[in-house]
Amino acid sequence: MSAEQLAELSDLFVVGAVLLYVFAMIGFATELAFGRFRPGKTAAAGAGARPSALKQPVAVGAAAASDGGDAVPDAVPAAGGSVAAETRGGEAAEGPDGQPRGAARAGMVALALAWVGWAANLGAIVTRGLAVERWPWGNMYEFVVAICFAAVTAFLATQLRNNVRFLGAFVMVTAALGLGLAVKVFYTAAGPVVPALNSYWIAIHVTAAIIASGLLTMAGVAGILYLIRGDGMSRLPAREDLERVAHRAIVFAFPVWTFAVIAGALWADRAWGRYWGWDPKEVWSFITWVAYAAYLHARVTAGWRGRAATIVQLVAFACLLFNLVGVNIFIGGLHSYADV
Amino acid sequence: MSVQELEKERAPKQAAFGLVGWLRWGWRTLTSMRTALILLFLLALGSVPGSLVPQRGVEPDKVARIYEQNPTLAEWYDRFQLFEVFTSTWFAAVYLLLFTSLIGCIIPRTATYVRELRRKPPAAPQNLSRLPHFASFESDLEVEETARRLRKLRFRVVTGDGWVSAEKGYLRETGNLFFHIALLGILLAIAAGSLFGYRGNVLVVEGDGFANTVAAYDRYIPGSQVSAESLEPFSLQLADFKVAYQVAGDKKGQALDYTAHLKVNDSPDAPARDFDLKVNTPLEVNGTQTYLIGNGYAPVFKVTDGKGQVAFEGAVPCLIEDKATMTSGCVVKAPDAQPEQLGFLLRFLPTSVPLTDGTYASAFPGSLNPEVRLEGAFTGDLGLRSGKPQSVYELAPPELMKKLKPLVMGTHVPKPLAAGQSIDLPEGAGKLEFVGVKEWITLQIAYDPGRMPALVFSGTAVVAIALSLMIRRRRVFVRVKEGPDGGRVDVGGLTRTEGSAAGFAEEFADIVKVLSAGEKHVR
Ligand code: HEM
């Protein structure tokens, strides 16, 4: 296939991914809409509570013990119920997590659609890379497409281990909007990049930034939901679940972001003759990093957990977004040769 | 920080008065978690103007423009050191307080940590079912066997009469301490770099060279502890400079690659070696780095004066006026011309094409059809003999510019010259010849002794923070009881670090699985 055809195919994949994400969002939203109301706190969450399944004496023997083990979904006790648990749950009118079966089915369909959309998003990135014969994140358009992909990957990968379907609708809508923004505002035709970007450092530095941004986007979505949802009963996921998902994503993303910033400094050392020069992009990466460090500190400072920490997290997320998009548009600097 | 420590922090402190009391109170406040948090906020907030207001060290031209256009605003900016946020006193105050707080935090925690490393896990509590994680099953498991299995899971184990206590995850605290210490290290490395390092810029035209001495720089910024003799004595010659451009498609005219072919002498008596300097491959000579940071055209001109003598001959670096087409503005000065000094303003067009209105423009940044257009020729005093420093990109200081006599100007500008062509000035004042095209590059030469230490500390920080965030400190207690109809085993578990309880349920279940398995099931 010629480069032009590959580039066209890539554009089609992006459109396909947007549509699939939208359909998946509808599915996830249906699950939430017909699901049960949930209390603000989950029964078994927090350090003070314990998973009820283990409280009952467990019969001796490896098989029984393993049952007991599986029945304790790790991060989402009570409110979620893992996919595996669901298939084992029998033909009751309610799923094992207490959600109506129809709603759960919508959720499963949505999950399948999300995976197909993810594959289309991946296809868009790969074909773009083949078309331009370089790492496909050399400008804003490619960068935003990759971050959406990373955010969906973060969600789906988390979903593999713990049930976080309750976040699905919101992650999907974010990814669909992000891709839409990329296509409508940032679109750049496939082509080569300026010499400064022609380096293996783009693979290291930008990839790390994309992975971290994807995870932090998921955390940001959970944080926004946390604030929207009150303390009482709601169809939205429980606050403690949201906080846990956000915290885990950030705990994972923070070292990656740290690495991305340092790799950026190494690259700047190769390309510009200094490893740190307070270029606007560097300033905002630093601000973002400090803000997330503040979030991690807030979590262990008396009186800051929960709502206050979530607000810190969202401020940090706003810094991240401003750094990714705002700096290129409003400020410029050395980094702005990645065309808007 | 463990929960116990948090409790301690929250506990009311006795009011101790007097100087010592106040000092102690100040130190405690400074090193508290809440102060650290506030200082982190201030650090982030303080950085914001550094990206919104142009910084002297990064964009001196923009700073100058603000002074021109809005002097009052510039003065206010200057009053708050907003043109140099990151070297300002108030920014330094924030980060120095933060790092003092950090030291005050690290020292006691290191001491606690060392003590904890030596301490054995505490005895198992009586009632394990009160712990956050608890399981109980029937088994004839014995204390020794339990300890063996837990050790196999890499727990640190202590046994007693009918109980086993185990702990794991000490690396978490190690990571946390190393991370914070590494941050301190990075700060020191940066400080060392700015004291003992230097940095400078120089423009070199094809065929010319550069020797690393203070006098050779166009702009030289030394650290306060750098002496002129400490500059690495290397020199280089720019043999040739090449740019590859995209020639077709949407991105036509975009630069694809820059290569500067250099001949480098690592020291005055070392043999010359070839080096291809590119954007992402700096030249390194004993820790001094040379970077390619800019390029442009330097057409060669020859000026013959009214008496028929060559008054000037050489390459003239031109300022880029339009990056996309590399249209450049050049200034040629011939102060030695007789009977009067001559000066020229020219426009260099690397790929000159005629436009429909009879003017010419450049259509491509590469030099495919290089031409120069004479915009103006002047005669009179250029002010070069006054001894005042002058810009090479300006014909004469503004006050002298008005007094110059124009020879060619405005609508009478002739057709552009191709290489080898010349133009005669009116009134027999002389002749200007466009001889050929050379290119110039700008180099940045930097020496920063803090580079490598900063890299080592940064690497440490990344590994340490990953350890600190991924590992959780956890304890598992086991009590075995013998009963009339077989034994009963109670297992309790807890995590010692806040915010990391998630995920432990899974691990705890696995541990219970290992303990409750029959003898044969355990390898
Ligand atoms: C220079 C700025 C600082 C940065 C960028 C920073 C960053 C971080 C980060 C990312 C963590 C998370 C690691 C973890 O949770 O284990 C952390 C933890 C921690 N930091 Fe800092 N820190 C800074 C200064 C300080 C200061 C001044 C203090 C003491 C007052 C401090 C005390 C702590 C403590 C006690 C923890 C452990 C939290 C826990 O156990 O979860 N840090 N820091």
What layout of secondary structure does this protein have?
The complex is a heterodimer of chains A (340) and B (523).
Chain A: H1 3-34, H2 62-70, H3 83-88, H4 101-132, H5 140-161, H6 168-184, H7 201-228, H8 239-271, H9 280-299, H10 307-331
Helix pairs in contact in A: 1-4, 1-6, 4-5, 5-6, 5-7, 7-8, 7-10, 8-9, 9-10
Chain B: H1 3-10, H2 18-30, H3 33-52, H4 60-69, H5 71-79, H6 89-118, E1 133-138, H7 143-152, E2 156-159, E3 163-168, H8 171-196, E4 198-205, E5 209-211, E6 219-222, E7 235-245, E8 255-265, E9 273-277, E10 283-285, E11 288-305, E12 310-315, E13 319-322, E14 327-334, E15 342-349, E16 352-354, E17 360-362, E18 371-379, H9 398-401, E19 405-409, E20 417-418, E21 422-424, E22 430-447, H10 451-470, E23 474-483, E24 486-495, H11 504-516
Antiparallel strand pairs in B: 1-24, 2-3, 3-23, 4-6, 4-22, 5-7, 7-8, 8-9, 10-11, 11-12, 11-22, 13-14, 14-15, 15-18, 16-17, 18-19, 18-20, 21-22, 23-24
The structure holds protoporphyrin IX containing FE (HEM).
Protoporphyrin IX containing FE (HEM) sits between chains B (1, 31, 33, 36, 40, 98, 101-102, 105, 176, 180, 183, 465, 468-469, 497) and A (254, 293, 296-297, 300).
Explain this structure.
The complex is a heterodimer of chains A (about 350) and B (about 525). Chain A has about 350 residues and is mostly helical. Chain A has a domain at about 195-340. Chain A has helices at about 5-35, 60-70, 85-90, 100-130, 140-160, 170-185, 200-230, 240-270, 280-300, 305-330. In chain A, α5 (about 140-160) runs antiparallel to α6, α7 (about 200-230) runs antiparallel to α8 and α9 (about 280-300) runs antiparallel to α10. Chain A is flat, with a radius of gyration of 22 Å. With about 525 residues, chain B is an alpha+beta fold. Chain B has 4 domains: about 20-110, no CATH class; about 120-170 and about 470-520, Kinase associated domain 1, KA1 (TATA-Binding Protein), CATH 3.30.310; about 195-295 and about 445-460, no CATH class; about 295-440, no CATH class. Chain B has 11 helices and 24 strands. Chain B has helices at about 5-10, 20-30, 35-50, 60-70, 70-80, 90-120, 145-150, 170-195, 400, 450-470, 505-515, and strands spanning about 135-140, 155-160, 165-170, 200-205, 210, 220, 235-245, 255-265, 275, 285, 290-305, 310-315, 320, 325-335, 340-350, 350-355, 360, 370-380, 405-410, 415-420, 420-425, 430-445, 475-485, 485-495. In chain B, the strands form 5 sheets. In chain B, strands 4, 6, 10, 11, 12, 21 and 22 form a 7-stranded antiparallel sheet that branches. In chain B, strands 13, 14, 15, 18, 19 and 20 form a 6-stranded antiparallel sheet that branches. Chain B has a 5-stranded antiparallel sheet with strand order 1-24-23-3-2, with helices on one face. Chain B is elongated. Residues about 1-10 of chain B have low confidence and may be disordered. Chains A and B meet through α2, α8, α9 and α10 of A and α1, α3, β1, β8 and β11 of B. Protoporphyrin IX containing FE (HEM) sits at the interface of chains B and A.
